[in-house]
Specification:
By secondary structure, the protein is mostly helical. The chain is 55% helix and 0% strand. Helix 3 packs antiparallel against helix 4, helix 4 runs antiparallel to helix 5 (88-99) and helix 6 crosses helix 8. The protein is elongated.
Length: 164
């Protein structure tokens, strides 16, 4: 998109002339509709096991957004649920969460295992955190995290009431 700033208001004729002169070659298409999801809808989806909803609701809790009080414990629970299902954003977020000590003490070993898992599953955004944490950990901590990553198998949550 382009933007222009004029030092005066344009007349209707000037606006029309600009539009006709610079009209796009193809047909204009409407953009995708933006669907606003309420906190109640996010809660329902998160409770039903939707990892994307769990990540989104966790972000709202960590930031105290949309009328929710900041709640790092709720964030951790939601992101752990999503991360265990294989959501790489949740895994990376947990790496940041533990590396910054959102629950009090920083936990670089736990942060590293989640960030490394996210990176090995294709999330390049986790690379910088992994490299930073590797400098803070001893070889045994790195080996334990690597074993966690190697053994990890995502497990999808069954929706409540669904006996699978």
């Amino acid at each position: 998109d382009d933007i222009r700033v004029y030092d005066r208001a344009l007349t209707a004729e000037e606006v029309k002339a600009l539009f006709l002169k610079e009209k796009p070659a193809g047909r204009l298409q409407a953009g995708k509709e933006i669907k606003v999801t309420t906190v109640a809808e996010l809660r329902a989806k998160a409770q039903a096991g939707d990892p994307k909803a769990q990540v989104s609701l966790g972000l709202k809790f960590i930031n105290g957004a949309d009328g929710l009080k900041k709640n790092p414990q709720a964030t951790e629970k939601l992101w752990l649920r999503a991360a265990k299902q294989g959501d790489t954003t949740a895994q990376s977020n947990l790496g940041i969460f533990y590396s910054r000590g959102f629950l009090g003490e920083k936990d670089p070993a736990k942060a590293y295992q989640w960030a490394k898992l996210s990176l090995t599953r294709g999330n390049q955004r986790a690379k910088q955190l992994v490299e930073q944490l590797e400098k803070e950990l001893n070889p045994q901590q790195i080996a334990e995290a690597d074993a966690f990553v190697k053994a990890f198998k995502p497990v999808r949550e069954a929706p409540p009431g669904n006996k699978e």
